[in-house]
Amino acid sequence: MSDKKKILILHTGGTLGMDLIGEPGDAARFKERLIKYAPRIFELADVDVEILFNKDSSNIRPSDWVALARRLDACMEKWDAFVVIHGTDTMSFTASALSYMILNPTKPIIVTGSQRPLMDARSDAPRNLIYAVELAVEGRFKEVSIFFDSLLMRGNRTKKLSIPSFGAFDSPNFPPLAKVGANTEYATTSLPVGPYSFDPRLETRVASVSLFPGFDVETFFSLTEKNIKGLVLQAFGPGDIPLGEGSVAHLIRHLTEHGIPTVICSQALYGRVDLNMYETGRAALNAGAISAQDMTWEAALTKMMILLGHGCSLQTFRTAFRRPLAGELLELP
Ligand code: ASP
């Protein structure tokens, strides 16, 4: 019997498995292609490959997150670690959602993908796969992470920042878990240990709006009639909203009065939302808005879906949203 670690690669789609003209590859031939173009991964571990689905990640829906989370939960005991192949476009949403559905995973779950298809001579896929498998085998970080180019990052802290660059992802408000180079540098941080739990319930009737000067608030008052259960606003700087004529504070108050949470994220990538910094933020706070603190938009939106899926009332949502579920925010004392 092999003494190598057992790794399950779960393919969900994206550029990595596409052919050279960008068509999703033939799922059945995928393992053959891995053997041909990324043979080293089979030296590093005992690798099993499974095609869960084969989608451009722009077409991934919350039901796909649930299917993926269910598969990982079902496989948790049987494999030593998991590498999920996923398109880059919505990878951060999937990693965030998984991190809340599978709390305190007992094995590493590393999501990766590539900017160029595996078959392309200049592809970044073999490198990303080799490091993802190597870090999975090492097993230092038992959480949902993303490996891309040279960084292993906490999944719910990531963002796709570049369309063309091989280093497409970053983790703006949290240091990488590992940085690979001639030698790998590891962070000393790890998630607090807690009991494993799996709960894939989520609420999909949420909305998100990016504010801009001249934003017409009237258009959004009917959100309550549309049966929206939560709203994420991408506001300016530290969480500021336009006041005065057509004040966004009216919309926040209206939703709050209907028991619908409004979360405020920032359009800025770095730093923390602070609704007390300016009058334009305080008005949002007084109207009932909830700060996303240093969470990414993706982490905040998926967390809203999860908490509402758990049946949180506005009051319990407020308390639960402020606290980290899976390292997605830094709680201030
Ligand atoms: N559209 C592709 C996807 O997200 C892009 C990629 O994989 O890089 O599935």
Q: Strand pairing plus helix content: what structural class?
A: alpha/beta
Write down the overall geometry: elongated
For the report, how would you describe the main beta sheet?
A: 8 strands, mixed
| Quaternary | single chain
Q: Could you characterize what this model shows?
A:
This protein has nine helices and 16 strands. It has an eight-stranded mixed sheet, with helices on both faces. Strands 13-14-15-16 form a four-stranded parallel sheet. A two-stranded antiparallel sheet has the order 4-12. By secondary structure, it is an alpha/beta fold. It has two domains: 6-197, L-asparaginase, N-terminal domain (Rossmann fold, 3-Layer(aba) Sandwich), CATH 3.40.50.1170; 203-321, 3-Layer(aba) Sandwich (Rossmann fold). The N and C termini lie far apart (51 Å). Aspartic acid is lined by residues 13-15, 56-58, 87-89, 113, 115.
